[in-house]
Amino acid sequence: MVIKVFLASSSGSTAIKKKQQDVVGFLEALKVDYAQLDIACNEENRMWMRQNVPEEKKPANGIPLPPQIFNEESYCGDYDTFFDAKEDNLVYSFLGLPPPPGSKEAVQADKADIVENGTHAEETNAEGNLDDSIEVPVEERNGDAHSKEELAQAADEEDEGEGGEEEEGEVAEGETADDEATEEETAGDEAPAEEEEAVEETDEVTEDTQAHAEEEEEQEEEELRQLEEQDEQGSEVVFVVCGVLYCFVFWPYRL
Length: 255
Description:
This protein has helices at 14-29, 43-52, 79-87, 91-95, 104-117, 138-141, 148-249, 251-254; strands spanning 3-7, 34-38, 68-71, 74-78. By secondary structure, the protein is α+β, with helices and mostly antiparallel strands. The chain has a 4-stranded mixed β-sheet, sandwiched between helices. Strand 1 (3-7), helix 1 and strand 2 (34-38) form a beta-alpha-beta unit. Mean pLDDT is 75; it is low at 121-128.
């Protein structure tokens, strides 16, 4: 297979010259065998290029401009498609060539084969073909590298986590119930104590009232005694006064 690059050696366009140099320089860097075909000095090359470029790839005026790239008789593309392939590391696919082992494009192709076919591209049989007997697990095909054991272990951990949360919830509820029972017992103990304090206060009030009543009774008795003594003293005074008057009034007449 020979890669053909159609160029215009005497082009007056700087942009065309730059594109041609870019394509040639990249092919030389990849060490790809190619042949340069000048359309400026060779009419046959120019006519062949125009006739073999697909109609849908031609510009509006119908005249394709260099550089145009072919693999033998097969059309590869122009500079724009070449540039896109270079950016995507797909130049060998663009040129219709197998990528060399170890290249980025070969690694990408191996990964694509693994995903699509479920086989390792590196493992081949004695005839050099891919060994279909060696399959990649379904998890790897789908991009999920977790095994069934790992998934089961993760599910068990989730169940344990949920069970632990339930146990913690039950323990918390049990502690809450114990706290409430303790508070009720404490409240029951405090109620009798308050009743006893109220009874003691009532007893104290009753004793004070009785003492105060007794004091008042004693004061009343003392006042009565004082009044009786005053009455007795008044009676004695009246008696004495009457005696004196009698002596002064009636005694002289008796004489």
